[in-house]
Write a sequence for this structure.
């Protein structure tokens, strides 16, 4: 059976090579598209420089953090270097560094392509929706292919080199710790700029979105790139790696079928990437417009994946239909969650309409009704995750000890199999959002702006759906990480000559202690991020006011604003705020572990997952709802632009901005990081803890 | 040892008699105080009539619900009538009815006294703060004494009559199901009126709070009574009964020490009531003002309770210091949680100041920063509950099987021992709030209004603290109800010849399934209540607009508004909305039970408790913070009244109103009801469930 596994290693590297080749092709294709408008080139250049400046400063901070973390890992993990084998510690530290580097490189290239595509998309929009869509989508697809390619490459290389799936957890931790800070930092940057630009521009001055007179307008466009392209890419890189890593840790611990379970994980990852390539290659705008184009590519990818994995079951020895079923359930539930998310954020459905109506009575009602629908919207996804975990577990339980949890981890792998497609759709959003801004600032005319608006609106709709999807995928992944944590903790307990854990009983007070504290963490974490945005935005608003009062001729458009001052405020603020929240979650995990040992950590992870999912779904969906509510009113409902309802909706949208683009999507990563920290440090808690 | 228990039954009835006698004395004392101002008498009469109308209509609906529930209980609980003994079913149904009736009577009398005290407090405020404080406080104390007296009376009578603690769960369910609807209905009423009055009066028309020209002003004052007096009384009646019931269920299941554990529960309840009587009798305003008077009475009560229970340990055979320790830890943690809650809502501390500062940048920042501090404020209370549960458990674990959970239930009993004092402080709030309104409407002059304002402000501060306290107490109670549920489920499993449950393992997918769904319920529940307020307030705002545009001379104060129309809107809306949310939680419990059996329900209760505590703490504290932030600005900070910051703070306060007075405090009751439903119906799930 080892030959079978080797076959899949080979195929993994082959499909990664294919994905990279395709990404290069798409990159060159995008680059080949013309851009002739000098004004657009100039602004696009400003956006690119702003993004690069931020990324450089962010990566310097993250490199320092990663260096410290790598040294700590070298000394302490998987077990203190003076106790275990130093080779393991060196491998773990190297795997950690590899995880951070691949994540950073993917983010960097994503930014490169996105800032290349935005101007070209804007100019292509003059010719119509089809060519513009293709540039925006293909620019995003480069990011999608790279992220999935890097994750498969990294996981396969680490496992092939070390043969030890625990080392994979180090790689995965590298990916997540970077993602945690990239998501938080990018999220704070983007919303600082967005909120400030909207409040001063739209609300106070009454100038349109993306008006070049607004000093924050370039920062706002930079933010789309660093938040939604780099941050989101790092986030999904992390989820994807974590899902594969936890599935592989559990697969290696299973007895009976040799390597076939490990092979199966790789096979599904390979076929997922292949299906995404097909989906990307076939994406075109038809008569139904861009939203439908993005959705139908997702459905194509899903169908291709399900058919090919079913075929693989017929071909390969030791592959199980039960596990296929678990993966299929995960994927289908993911798609269904996406659709229900759409219900709560789509402006043709009741929730958005009701919030728009409530806005007529004032902003308090916009906020209250949006929060309410946000809370309700969490229910279907929570039920979906609960059902897919239950079904995957029950399907695989008869296969033997440990298979039930393996089933859940394969549901996560299944859900994430189409992640290449998801990222492509997601990265499309900021590119066309930028393109819309460039069309406005480049003076390309009403018609072109309308085309860009249509592309942008599709990006927003799809974004809400993919967010629900990625939160749910993180949910399933961390459930299987809970299994991985238990298996790691038990290895350490056996080594320490202590009794193993068979589960985490909620009636055990140390477990319960962990649950209550774990449940508080996502709330505190998101509060810290939101307060970061709140603080920075106040500073940026003050700067914008200063520019308008001090720079003569700015209001009339005769003089350019000092764009770089705003970019600098967003950058410094984000860099300053990104570490504390992330560090708090890691430190809290360690404190609970050293107080209550593995049982408390089991509870802590559970509490963290449950409240993390709830808060993330609430925030993402409420934010998406308010955004679309504002657009719905701007399109003429409830009195249209500048009505009382519109003013209230703008306030709702401002509240929703950090919900949906800073805190909500960062929670994914937060729960993954905490789960990985717990697994990695489990042996420490076995040795040192007050209660046990 | 049975003689010991009989002694405590006797003492229970004696202390209840004493409490009732004291309540009657206070009632007569309040009634004796003079009221001479015709205008105030007239308005006070309107408030009283409005409250009575609402209570009558609400109780008619609740009576129908209770009748249906009693029939269902008669047929199905504790086990289907065709299987078990019909006497048990009859007892259970009667106990249920007794629970609902006592809760309703306490609410009714509370309203009676509160509407009697408000006018007298207002007029006494002309003479100074001391006499006014005393009337307000003693009016509230009548409610406090009655609620605690009724709970001890009911619990002792039911247990003495049936000897079966399971029947107590029926009594407790009666109390909670009424509380659930009373809290939801009263909460919707009060915030519909408050929000509408503020938005139209303060924001749109720029007239002061409690201005008699505002058509919603009477409804607003009625709301304080039906929401904060009747609703809150029902809530704490429910918590108190549930804490005692679950402690007694567990005490009866303990082996070894005969009746002494049961005796101990009664002894602590008796001493708690006695300590509250002392605290109430000694309350006076000193130099430090009303807030300090309320707080120091609470400290007196706490100290008296701790000393007397320690003495009881020396006197009575079989009483344990470990259990005393558990009760003491619960009580002390409750007080500490109250103090930390105060930090987040007090305007001399950093959170309120920062939110006020953020308000200068617009309402979106008020909302965002308030939500953030609300989330952070949940952490200390969650940690406090976690620690008190852990310590109580570890303290009592060495005493033998089952004692650990008994320890947690006694921590809840300890925390709730001073509930008589807590209710007195809480009911004081709406009385002085009403008094302030009456002083304004009766034209008693600036000086008197200032005195009333000071009394009112103390009420608001103490209210935030008591809310943190009562949420935490509910948290500990429902943890012990989880223990009660397991013991009930195991009885049913033994009767069915199935294997008993030793715990709820979070790695078990049916448990996990339950956890995820249970965690969603408080979010959906609170959303439904908030949407109820949102919808009704929109209707009431429309009605107020209509009156101002159609009634000539209203704006100038020449003609009276049609107060009754607004009262009617609040009443009909609340009656209409109060059933669905409550029913949803009960039905969800049953669905999860019939799908996943006892294991899923164990998880469901856990998820419900954890997310319920988090959301309740978040909402109550954020709401309190916004309220005080508005007052802080009105007192002159950040530009004072009518500044930009003030407008933003008013919007924040409006968002916070249903958070803190409708949804937040209703969640207490929601988690208790769900826990009781689960315990009561456990045998049904053992017999009928899809998975197990």
């Amino acid at each position: 059976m080892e030959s079978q596994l080797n076959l899949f290693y080979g195929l993994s590297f082959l499909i990664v090579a294919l994905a990279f080749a395709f990404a290069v092709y798409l990159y060159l294709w995008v680059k080949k598209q013309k851009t002739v408008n000098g004004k657009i080139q100039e602004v696009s250049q400003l956006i690119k420089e702003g993004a690069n400046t931020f990324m450089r400063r962010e990566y310097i901070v993250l490199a320092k953090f990663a260096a410290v973390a790598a040294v700590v890992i070298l000394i302490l993990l998987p077990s203190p270097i003076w106790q275990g084998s130093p080779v393991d510690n060196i491998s773990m530290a190297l795997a950690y560094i590899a995880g951070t580097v691949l994540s950073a490189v993917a983010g960097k290239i994503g930014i490169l392509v996105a800032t290349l595509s935005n101007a070209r998309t804007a100019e292509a929009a003059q010719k119509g929706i089809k060519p513009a869509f293709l540039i925006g989508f293909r620019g995003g697809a480069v990011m999608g292919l790279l992220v999935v390619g890097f994750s498969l490459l990294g996981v396969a290389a680490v496992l092939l080199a070390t043969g030890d799936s625990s080392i994979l957890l180090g790689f995965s931790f590298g990916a997540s710790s970077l993602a945690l800070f990239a998501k938080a930092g990018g999220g704070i940057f983007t919303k600082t700029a967005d909120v400030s630009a909207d409040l001063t521009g739209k609300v106070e001055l009454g100038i349109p979105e993306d008006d070049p007179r607004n000093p924050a307008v370039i920062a706002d466009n930079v933010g789309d790139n660093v938040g939604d392209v780099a941050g989101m890419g790092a986030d999904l890189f992390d989820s994807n790696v974590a899902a594969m890593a936890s599935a592989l840790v559990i697969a290696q611990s299973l007895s009976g079928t040799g390597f076939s379970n490990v092979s199966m994980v790789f096979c599904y990852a390979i076929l997922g990437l292949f299906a995404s390539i097909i989906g990307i290659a076939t994406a075109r705008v038809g008569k139904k417009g861009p939203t439908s184009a993005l959705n139908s590519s997702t459905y194509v990818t899903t169908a291709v994946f399900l058919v090919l994995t079913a075929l693989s079951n017929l071909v390969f020895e030791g592959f199980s239909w039960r596990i296929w079923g678990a993966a299929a359930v995960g994927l289908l539930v993911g798609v269904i969650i996406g659709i229900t998310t759409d219900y709560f954020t789509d402006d043709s459905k009741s929730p958005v309409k009701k919030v728009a109506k409530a806005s007529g009575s004032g902003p308090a009602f916009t906020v209250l009704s949006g929060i309410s629908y946000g809370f309700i919207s969490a229910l279907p996804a929570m039920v979906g995750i609960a059902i897919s975990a239950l079904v995957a577990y029950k399907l695989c339980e008869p296969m033997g000890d440990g298979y039930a949890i393996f089933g859940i981890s394969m549901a996560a792998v299944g859900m994430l199999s189409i992640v290449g497609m998801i990222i492509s759709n997601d990265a499309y959003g900021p590119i066309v959002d930028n393109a819309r801004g460039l069309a406005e600032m480049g003076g390309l005319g009403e018609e072109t702006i309308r085309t860009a608006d249509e592309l942008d609106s599709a990006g927003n709709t799809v974004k809400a759906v993919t967010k629900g999807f990625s939160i749910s995928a993180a949910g399933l992944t961390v459930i299987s990480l809970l299994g991985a944590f238990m298996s790691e903790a038990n290895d350490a307990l056996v080594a320490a000559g202590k009794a193993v854990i068979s589960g985490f009983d909620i009636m055990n007070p140390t477990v319960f202690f962990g649950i209550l504290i774990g449940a508080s963490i996502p709330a505190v974490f998101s509060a810290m991020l939101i307060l970061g945005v709140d603080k920075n935005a106040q500073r940026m608003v003050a700067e914008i006011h200063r520019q308008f009062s001090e720079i003569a001729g700015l209001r009339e458009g005769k003089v350019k604003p000092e764009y770089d001052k705003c970019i600098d405020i967003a950058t410094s603020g984000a860099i300053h705020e990104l570490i504390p929240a992330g560090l708090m979650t890691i430190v809290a995990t360690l404190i609970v572990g050293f107080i209550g040992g593995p049982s408390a950590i089991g509870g802590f992870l559970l509490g963290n997952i449950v409240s993390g999912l709830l808060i993330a779904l609430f925030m993402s969906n409420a934010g998406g709802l308010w955004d679309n509510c504002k657009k719905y009113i701007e399109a003429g409902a409830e009195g249209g632009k500048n009505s009382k309802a519109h003013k209230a909706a703008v306030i709702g949208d401002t509240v929703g901005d950090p919900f949906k683009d800073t805190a909500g999507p960062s929670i994914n990563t937060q729960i993954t990081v905490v789960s990985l920290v717990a697994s990695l440090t489990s042996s420490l808690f076995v040795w040192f803890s007050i209660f046990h």
Notes: The mean pLDDT of chain A is 89. Residues 259 and 347 of chain A are 49 Å apart (CA to CA). The two ends of chain A are 41 Å apart (CA to CA).
